[in-house]
Write a structure and sequence with these properties.
single chain; alpha+beta; six-stranded antiparallel beta sheet; four-stranded antiparallel beta sheet; 3 helices; 24% helix; 51% strand; elongated
Length: 174
């Protein structure tokens, strides 16, 4: 048993880091499984977010996320539809073996047909909503077999944005 353990340790030393590509379509598919999202904002609006559309923004090392939004005050039968556009950074969460969205910022929140006062109230609350619903949201989760190669266990150590993809460096656990 001791010999087998030292053999595995020496194999881990011989196998170096691996670079894995996560295409935008693969990330998009992982994100779509997490929607729709529902929330009540400040007891004033019921909000439903659907139809996530991911864009990788390598020039700023961020990602963009555009969502369809449905907004309805709980005390009225009226509802509005619109679009929420936000951006954030992707980081590695090794505890969950996931790529997660952090530092979200609402870039635009357009609601069709909503009067000025309601639109301003909703706009002020949009950043709060984004941080509440989307903070640390996994965009991609590694399966256990993704982190095992040649009998060696790996962990995600670095992430890079590129046009149309993310590149994750996986390093052997030592």
């Amino acid at each position: 048993a001791l010999a087998a353990g030292s053999l595995l340790a020496s194999c881990a030393g011989m196998i170096g880091p691996r670079r894995v590509e996560l295409s935008q379509s693969r990330l998009q598919a992982g994100l779509e499984r997490r929607f729709p999202l529902h929330n009540r904002m400040l007891d004033l609006f019921d909000v439903q977010l659907t139809g996530p559309r991911l864009a990788i923004l390598p020039e700023t090392d961020r990602v963009g996320l555009t969502l369809d939004a449905s907004v309805a005050p709980p005390f009225l039968r009226q509802s509005w539809r619109g679009t929420l556009a936000l951006s954030g950074r992707l980081v590695l969460d090794n505890g969950r073996n996931a790529v997660v969205l952090v530092d979200t910022h609402v870039d635009r929140f357009d609601v069709d047909g909503m009067e000025g006062g309601h639109a301003r109230d909703l706009g002020r609350a949009a950043d709060l909503l984004a941080n509440q619903l989307l903070r640390d949201m996994p965009v991609y989760t590694f399966r256990p077999e993704d982190l095992r190669y040649g009998g060696v266990q790996f962990f995600p150590s670095r992430i890079e944005t590129a046009p149309g993809a993310l590149f994750v460096t996986l390093e052997p656990v030592r």
